[in-house]
Amino acid sequence: MRPETRSFYELAVRSAVRAIAGDLDEALDLGALARPAALAPLHFHHVFRGLVGETPLELHRRLRLERAARQLIDSDDPVTQVAFGAGYETHEAFTRAFRQAYGAPPSDYRAGARAAASSCRRPPATELAARSGVHVDAGPCPDPWFPPSEGALAMDVVIENLPERTVFALRHVGPYASISSAFRSFGDIAGPAGLFGLPGAALIGIYHDDPETTPASELRSDAGVVVPPGTSIPAGLTAVRLPAGAYARTRHAGPYSTLGDAWSRLMGDWLPRSGERAANGPCLELYLNDPTTAAPEELLTDLYVPLA
Question: Whole-structure pTM over 0.85, yes or no?
Answer without folding.
Answer: no
